[in-house]
Amino acid sequence: METELKDLKSQPSQQPPPPLQPTVTNDDVPLLKNSETHHSRNSSNSNSNVSGDNLDELEKKFAAYVRHDVYGTMGRGELPLGEKFLLGIALVTLVPVRVVLATTLLVLYYLICRICTLFSAPNREEEEEEDGQEDYAHMGGWKRTVIVQCGRSLSRAMLFVFGFYWIKETYRIPDSTAQRKEESEEPERPGAIISNHVSYLDILYHMHSSFPSFVAKRSVGKLPLVGIISKCLGCVYVQRESKSSDFKGVSGVVTERVREAYQNKSAPMMMLFPEGTTTNGDYLLPFKTGAFLSTVPVRPVILRYPYRRFSPAWDSISGVRHVIYLLCQFVNHLEVVRLPIYCPSQQEKDDPKLYASNVRRLMASEGNLIMSDIGLPEKRVYHAALNGNNSLPSVLHRKDD
C-alpha cells in the first residue's frame, strides 16, 4: 500500500517530466532488451553491452530503488542452482501452508470487524456517501476495544506467518540534560507517527505496534475483506491521480485527525509515510510537508529489513513476485528504531517545510539512511526503463540537470 500526501500550502513545485510508459508490461520480459534488439540489425557488436551499461547507469541515478539481493533487479536475476533448489522446495511445502494460515487470519479479522460494526453507523467526514471519508475508528466501547486488540494480535500473527519470528525494537532515549528537564512537559503521545516506507509489511508492523490510521488509495476501501478493515483502522482515503479540490479536502482531514489525536487520547492516531513511496530501505526520500501542516509533535520510527537472500523491500519488483519470494523465505528480519517524540520549535511551526526537513535529517542520522533527492516520478521512470522502453537514452539524461 503506497501513500502520498502533497504539499498544499506551498506554491506548486515545478512539475516533473511525465513518466515514460513501458512499452511492454509482461513481467517475464528480459530487462532492457528492447533497445538492444531494436538496433541489432544495424550493429550487433556495438550493442552487445548496451543492456549492462544502461543498467549500471540506471542504478547510479535511481539508487534508492535498486535491489541488491540474490534475486537481482526486479526479482528477475539468474539464480544459483542452490537457490533454485531451495525455491522449489519452499514452493511446494512452505508457501501453501503460509497462504492458508494468512488467509485464515485475514478472514478471521474480517469477521471480527464485520460483527463489531454490524449495527454501527460509520463516522463520515463529508456528505457524499460514495466519495466521502467514512470510518469506524471513532466508535467507542467494548467493540472498539475488541477491534483494536484483535487487530494488534492478528497483525503480529500475520508477520509471524510471513517469517518474522522476532522483531528487534530499539527505543532511543534523549541524552541531554535539557531534554530530561523538559521530559515532564513532553506530551503523553504525539499527534502522528512518521515512518520511512520500505514495504507493505510496514503496515502490519504499525498495526501491531500502535494500530493507527493510515492514508490509503480510495480503492482500498472498496476491496473485499480489506475494505472493512481499513475503515476500522480509520484510513483517510485519497484519489492519488486526482487534481481536483478533493485532494485539498483529504489534506484537511489528515491535519484535523493529527491535531485530534494530539489533543484527545481516545482518538485514533495517524500513521504517515511522508516519502510517498517505498524504497530499498537504504535511502530516505524527500518528505511531503502534508504530514507536518498540523505543527504538533510527531514520533519518528525507522524500519529496516536486514536480509541475506531476498529483500522484503518493495522497490522495483512486482507485487505477485514479491509475495511469492517472501513466502518462500523461511526467516525474515525486521529491526525498528523508535525515536523520542519530536516537538517542533516555533520556527518549525511557522515553516512546515523546515519541520519536515529537520525530522527527515534526524531519521537519516539515527537510522544510518542515505538522503536522496528523487521521488515517485523518478521511480516510475526507472520502472519504465527496466521494462524495456525504447527511449532509454532520454530517460538516463533527464536527471542530469
UniProtKB/TrEMBL annotation:
> Biased composition, Low complexity: where in the chain?
42-53
Cite the GO molecular-function annotations of the record.
lysophosphatidylethanolamine acyltransferase activity; O-acyltransferase activity
Of the GO CC terms on this record, one is: endoplasmic reticulum
Superkingdom per UniProt = Eukaryota
Mark the transmembrane ranges.
85-112
- Assigned keywords, A-Z: Acyltransferase, Lipid biosynthesis, Lipid metabolism, Membrane, Phospholipid biosynthesis, Phospholipid metabolism, Transferase, Transmembrane, Transmembrane helix
Q: Where is region (Disordered) located?
A: 1-53
Name a Pfam family for this protein.
Acyltransferase
UniProt xrefs under InterPro entries: LPCAT1-like, Plipid/glycerol_acylTrfase
- GO biological-process terms attached to the record: phospholipid biosynthetic process
Q: Where in the cell is it found?
A: Membrane
Q: In which pathway does it act?
A: Lipid metabolism
Give the protein family: Belongs to the 1-acyl-sn-glycerol-3-phosphate acyltransferase family.
Protein name stated in the entry: Phospholipid/glycerol acyltransferase domain-containing protein
Tell me which species this is from: Quercus rubra
